[in-house]
Amino acid sequence: MTTHLAIDDELINEALTLGHFKTKEDTVVTALKEFINRRKQLEIIDLFGHFDPDLDYDYKKGRLS
């Protein structure tokens, strides 16, 4: 799907340089992926403390010997 966006040239060029990307498209796609991942992380962090721990869970059982 082609989308045309008006993005500040200074902003996109700085991101392109900092990320060492070859194209503006690569820059925008990576920025969107990072934005999505960050928001998902924040949602997970918000869940901390909302669930009771499983007292029967044996964390040592899953370790490799």
TrEMBL record:
It holds the Pfam family VapB_antitoxin. This is Transcription regulator of the Arc/MetJ class. It comes from Methylomicrobium album BG8. The lineage of its organism: Bacteria, Pseudomonadati, Pseudomonadota, Gammaproteobacteria, Methylococcales.
